[in-house]
Amino acid sequence: MTIAVSILPEQQLAALNSAYRKAVARKRLRLLAALAVFLAALIMSSIGAEVNLRTFFTYFGNFVSYFDRILTLDSGQRVWTNVGEWFWGLHKWLKLLGETLLISYVGTLLGAVLAFALNFFAAENTSPARWLLFTVRRLLEFARTVPGIVFALIFVIAFGLGPMAGVLAIAIHSTGALGKLFSEIVENADMKPVEGIRSTGASWLSCMRFAILPQVSAGYASYALLRFEINVREASVMGFVGAGGIGQELIVAIRKFYYSDVSAILVTVIVTVFLIDITTGWVRGRLFGKEART
Amino acid sequence: EDWRAKYPEITFAAIPAENGSGVTERYAPFISYLSKELGVKVTLRVANDYAALIEGQRAGNIQIGYYGPASFARARLTGVKTDAFVIDVNSDGSKGYYSVFYVLAKSPYQKIEDLKGKNLGLVDPNSTSGNNMPRFKLNAMGIDPDAYFSKVVFTGSHENAVLALAQGTVDVAANWWNADDDSNLTRMLNKGMVKSADGTVMKKEDFRIIVKSDLIINSPYAYLSDLPEDMKAAIKKAFLDAAQKDPEAFKKLSDGKNKPWEPVATEDYNKTIELIKFVDNLRKKAS
Amino acid sequence: MLVLEGLTCRFGAKAAVDDASFQVAPGSFVGVIGRSGAGKSTLLRTINRLVTPTQGRILFDGLDVTSLRGGELRQWRARSAMIFQQFNLVGRLDVLTNVLMGRLATMPAWRALSQLWSEQDKALAMSALEQFDIAALAAQRADQLSGGQQQRVAIARALVQQPDIILADEPIASLDPRNTKIVMDALLRINKHFGITVLCNLHSLDLARGYCDRLIGMAAGRVVFDGAPSALTDLVARELYDLEAADVMGATPAPMPQGVPALGTAAAA
Amino acid sequence: MLVLEGLTCRFGAKAAVDDASFQVAPGSFVGVIGRSGAGKSTLLRTINRLVTPTQGRILFDGLDVTSLRGGELRQWRARSAMIFQQFNLVGRLDVLTNVLMGRLATMPAWRALSQLWSEQDKALAMSALEQFDIAALAAQRADQLSGGQQQRVAIARALVQQPDIILADEPIASLDPRNTKIVMDALLRINKHFGITVLCNLHSLDLARGYCDRLIGMAAGRVVFDGAPSALTDLVARELYDLEAADVMGATPAPMPQGVPALGTAAAA
Amino acid sequence: MSRKPEVNAAELRGRYPQIFDRPASSRMATPVVLAAALAIFAFGLVDLDFSPSRFISGLSQLGWISMMMIPPDPGSSLPLYLKALGETLSIALLGTTLAAVLALPVSLLAARNVVPSIILRFPVRRLLDSIRGVDTLIWALVWINVVGLGPFAGVLAIAVSDFGAFGKLFSEAIEGADQRQVEGIRASGGSALHEIRFGLMPQVLPVIAGQVLYFIESNTRSATIIGIVGAGGIGLQLAEQIRVLEWQKVSFLILMILVAVAGIDFISGKLRFAIIGRRAVA
Ligand SMILES: Nc1ncnc2c1ncn2[C@@H]1O[C@H](COP(=O)(O)OP(=O)(O)OP(=O)(O)O)[C@@H](O)[C@H]1O
Ligand SMILES: Nc1ncnc2c1ncn2[C@@H]1O[C@H](COP(=O)(O)OP(=O)(O)OP(=O)(O)O)[C@@H](O)[C@H]1O
Ligand SMILES: [Mg+2]
Ligand SMILES: [Mg+2]
Q: Which residues hold their Cβ within 5 A of ligand 3, which is an ion?
């Protein structure tokens, strides 16, 4: 081993160390205080939520019991011994699944377009005016914070029963969620190209179109795809407004204890989630895989 | 009595027959009565889903459950070892109720045949008066609801079905009905809860019944079959004595509408079980 | 003729440019030199109006640049093309589109937004690229190019703006020696061939001396030197850079620096 | 003594380093020069074993570095400290912790993971920082420092590894002239004072000549020059860089280049 | 005025045909994809019964509903609402924290830059997908079998279903981390664990913290699980009040949720600042 550093004299070192400790101590104290607050909140919550670890461990064996039941046919056999019987409703389910995907697609697209239109105003670095930034941010916050189900319930009263209310509810909520995420991407964008284009005499719109958009579109697509996946699941909550799709069918099967139907629909849904995940992963890779790595 | 040592705490679970928000307040005095009477702590749980109650009893951690007739039948049908012990009794002494189809009085619909292609509002897949009986009845009339109506929706609760009808979200709604002065609708009207889409408070005359079903047996209270016998006896006694020993608590449960509970046996629900089996069989046929 | 009159630009309490006054004759190649933080970038950015001056005026052929707003301001930016140290290209767009950005100020918004470039503009952009031997790369993405190539794209973009003056902010700071020469030669060519005025920030005194007709030295926001390169004595240079003159002047350091610097004598941060 | 025997490193079909063989004597300061893409970075990264060589051997004092795995490999990495162009510090950790990263290989995992540094290590890290006049910044986050300061932190990290050899991959490419001097002086100091071998990639021939005892020139992955700086003739330099020698050698260009270069004569890309 | 460079368009066109006359395939690609996306959208609108007239009349109805919401008024139910809000907050905080703690190690296994082998990563990713694919109602029922009805089952149901989502989100954050910092640790002789602890974690923790806080927020709002397991919850109250058309209570509840979420935002900002420093937050 080589000696590469001459250790400082005791005294000098002590002075430096104490300066470091003092600077770090403040940070560390803040960190500890934050952790303490967080822990206290957790403990209070676990009392409020009636956490009981003894029951949890005593009866943990029951965890599989529900899965055991949904993997059994009415005849008492395992589901995979008779796939035809298990997936008796496949045709109907695929149709409902298609409907769910469509609801999610339309809702996500509407939401993404609205979020796209608003997000440049909600981003610190591109918003043309402070008041606009403030207003749009509050608007997005509202759209995001009010639960989707509330919009659905209100819309069903306003627009009547049917998928439209559900789709609009999904769209509004997506606008809020995506608008925030989109504007965060914009805030992380490199501003040098904007400056470059601005210096040529381009308008604000052109700067967004040519300097920001090429940088952020891959990120937008990525978040919109993720949102699409979330909305596929959200759509089931919209069942009662007549926008149920496969989710509503699943809930009926759960409530009526049509065990093998539950597992069959679940498998259908999970395979769909696989496909969406793989596809979105592939699209993300195509859109910005290479740049992200270099 | 050693069952108290084994069950120092018992759970009583109910499904909101009306809207969830009111249930806790409504049950609070009765729960404390029960606790006092049994000498153990009783915890109330209000689940807004039948399935949760059924699963809870199956797992053995809900000792007493308040079911609807259909969900009780469903529990039995799926192998939950639970027994009905008392039954609600209506103000007129009857132990059952009916399923009816309401339409708005100002609408032109007089009979079910007028409603082809309209929207039907049911209550919940497991509700007897809100789903199973209406389907049974429609089937008897030769109607397949999913093909006959433009849309069939579960509104989630009896109240919601009435509200959906009042606001025009659906054209016809299924609901429970006891007597002319005792139905979900009258209870809601008394509270001024029913408002039309433009906000005006509605009256009984604004609704019309176009179909009424056969009698459906009332909701049971059920305990787990494998509880100790003396414990079951104690619970049953506490329920039967409730109206006498703590009339205030008992009255609060049904706003004074119900008479004291009466004993009932699981077998009394066989007809309901048959009804559910019938509805289940419709399922695979329909597709 | 570009005229600066008492130009001052403050960020908070700090004056990044402090009471700068000078004139630049059409067709000249002026170098701006000075230490990091002296205000060179801010000076150029203020002239382009990327930064709004706090005080003073900028006049160009009689036009008061300081008072422009909206469309007129954009026209001025188009007339005073900027070139940046970090190129400031849009990495994900192809080279041709990057060059066409220089035409944005001259076309209707809807055409620009839908990328409907006129044949004329495309030809202009291609010929600018050709001048710098990168026309073959027109369809490539800008971020796939080397630094030197990117800077040439940026110069092509500046050129299609058909500017009256080019403001170059350390255009070669991120480049290796080979590309440095290519880029500086390109600027010189534009200056001499088309007579476009060039105002160029430079770190390296050697380059400034080699290429510029005139040098402006800045320190702490003020103009402290203004004259021909030959007038820049070692003394002035030392003052400007606050360093040993030998280091500044880029003379080859002695093969082995006189004695190894002792421990703990590194310059303060 | 570092010995490379026929070292080759391929990425797909391309040989980034191609059959490189040379020896580096202990205590020498060796510069590696060559154009962009010549394989300089890959060479250094292979020696540190961040990249696994395709063929050939690396020996250090008789130890076969190419065959190391697991804990031994990590020990070797600790012995051959790397310094990167982009510093490669952990931005969100404070400066002292970043320097302490250099001690990871010498301590039990549980201590490291729970950040229980020994007093000794802390003293070592603090002293290393003080050597570069940045001990006062020890508690700051690394990403709040300027480029020159960050690179000094990186060098301090390398030092506390108590390495036998330092591999510096264009350590000054992101720095301004002033910081360049500070960082290169620091490397020289380490080399001369502690006798640690330094292998340093450099873009600038001037710097290479100024600081190195010996230069290794690479082109297309092959070693094409190996000798004293004084042996690097203009001819070799021209070949290495594919440029006019005068441009490479950093001689002051003629005050005004002879005639303006004609349009279309810019050097091919 | 400067001289303008002269341009011979025709000649240039001849020299660079592919620039001036791009092949139809590359020119049409974007419009075709856009048209396809729009076609599906239009089909969706028709299939899902969208009608402009209903939309317009619905908007006026919405306006009327908003009028009815003023002023917000909890009636006599304020204590009930506060209790429900408290319950919901506890369940959301606990469930989400649990999910995050469990998801962190698993997400490492699902990240390309930590586990380069696709054979190892694939099953982990599919496991996460499966968990996300299972409806929360099912998770609620599964946990009722274990711990019975009550808020604890809600905590567990949220923990499991968010675990699936976090696993995916975290692994994406990890994949987006700056590899140079990790390389710096590796080059100094750090082990894989060191690389994760010192190279990755400082980078991804702020991102992760942001996502966890967002999920706490969104769980606070959602009604489903918490109502099913018999723990009341503010979302359930809200849904009930809309059903019975108590608009003033509805707006009051919405305000309560907005305030609670703003509160979470505020506290979490402080906490994040304490944990990772001001710059990362800003
Ligand atoms: N947007 C800004 N906000 C606040 N201060 C700024 C801003 N831009 C520049 N400054 C400050 O103004 C001073 C001059 O900066 P400027 O970038 O013009 O210097 P420079 O001479 O270009 O230096 P360099 O050689 O590092 O590019 C610096 O102290 C800088 O910190
Ligand atoms: N991980 C990799 N995968 C594929 N090719 C690589 C990889 N790393 C380097 N290369 C290729 O190997 C060649 C040598 O690269 P290297 O980075 O060693 O050059 P360099 O001399 O350091 O250049 P520079 O001066 O630009 O840093 C280049 O052509 C490069 O594209
Ligand atoms: Mg500058
Ligand atoms: Mg390199």
A: C 41
Q: Going by CA atoms, what residue is nearest to atom 3 of ligand 1?
A: C11
Q: Say whether both E96 and E229 belong to one domain.
A: yes
Partner-chain residue, chosen from A5, A20, A23, that has the shortest CB–CB distance to D160: A5
On whether the CB atoms of residues D83 and D161 are closer than 8 A, the answer is no
Q: Is D258 within the bounds of a domain?
A: no
DSSP state of B195: B
Average pLDDT for residues B226-252, to the nearest whole number? 90
**Segment D194-206 mean pLDDT:** 87
Structural domain harbouring D70: 2-248
Same domain, E59 and E87: no
Instruction: Give how far the C-alpha of residue A265 lies from the chain's centroid of Cα atoms, to the nearest Å.
Output: 23
DSSP code per residue over A143-194 = HHHS-HHHHHHHHHHHH-SSHHHHHHHHHHHHHHHHHHHHHHHHHHS-SHHH
Residues E144 and E46 reside in one and the same domain:
no
CA D42 to ligand 2: nearest atom: 18
Residue C204 falls inside a structural domain: yes
Q: What amino acid occupies position C211?
A: Y
E4 lies in a domain?
no
Ligand nearest the Cα of residue C218 is 1
Q: Render pLDDT for D117-153 as a digit per residue (tens, 0 to 9).
A: 888 899 989 998 988 888 888 888 888 787 788 888 9
pLDDT tens digit string along B143-195?
888 889 988 888 877 888 888 888 888 899 999 888 888 888 888 888 777 87
Question: What is the longest distance spanned by two Cα atoms in chain D?
Answer: 69
Checking phi first, is residue D133 left (phi over 0); if not, alpha (psi -120 to 50) or beta?
Answer: left
pLDDT at E2 over 50: no
**Residue E86 Cα to chain centre, angstroms:** 23
Say if residues A207 and C74 touch (Cβ distance below 8 Å). no
Total tally of structural domains belonging to chain E: 2
Establish whether chain B is in contact with chain D, requiring a minimum of 3 CB pairs below 8 angstroms: no
Q: What is the pTM of this model?
A: 0.78
Domain of residue E44 covers: 9-67
> If pLDDT is split at 50, 70 and 90, which confidence band does E226 have?
low
Residue E148 maps to which CATH number? Answer: 1.10.3720.10
Asked whether residue E60 falls in the same domain as residue E171, the answer is no
Q: Three-state SS for A262?
A: helix
Q: Considering only the beta carbons, identify the residue of C135, C164, C194 that sits closest to E16.
A: C135
pLDDT exceeds cutoff 70 at E282:
no
Walk across the sheet containing C29-34 and list its strands: C80-83, C165-169, C197-201, C29-34, C214-219, C222-227
Q: What is the ipTM of this complex?
A: 0.76
Q: pLDDT band for position D204 (50/70/90)?
A: confident
Q: Which residues contact C79 (CB under 8 A, 6 or more apart)?
A: A201, C60, C161, C163, C164, C165
Domains of chain A: 24-71 (no CATH), 87-288 (1.10.3720.10)
Q: How many CB atoms lie within 10 A of CB E60?
A: 10
Percent of chain D with pLDDT over 90: 29
Residue E2 inside a domain? The answer is: no
For residue C126, tell me if it sits in a domain. Answer: yes
Same structural domain, E24 and E85: no
What is the CATH number for D152? 3.40.50.300
Q: Does C127 touch chain E (CB under 8 A)?
A: yes
Of E67, E93, E109, the residue at which a domain comes to its end is E67
Q: Do residue E126 and residue E42 come from a single domain?
A: no
Q: Is D136 exposed, middle or buried (0-12, 13-18, 19+ CB in 10 A)?
A: middle
Q: Which residues of A touch C81 (CB under 8 A)?
A: 199-200
Note whether residue D263 is domain-resident: no
Pairing of strands B119-122, B96-104: unpaired
| DSSP SS3 for B95 | coil
Segments of chain A with pLDDT less than 50? 290-294
Provide the domain count of chain D.
Answer: 1
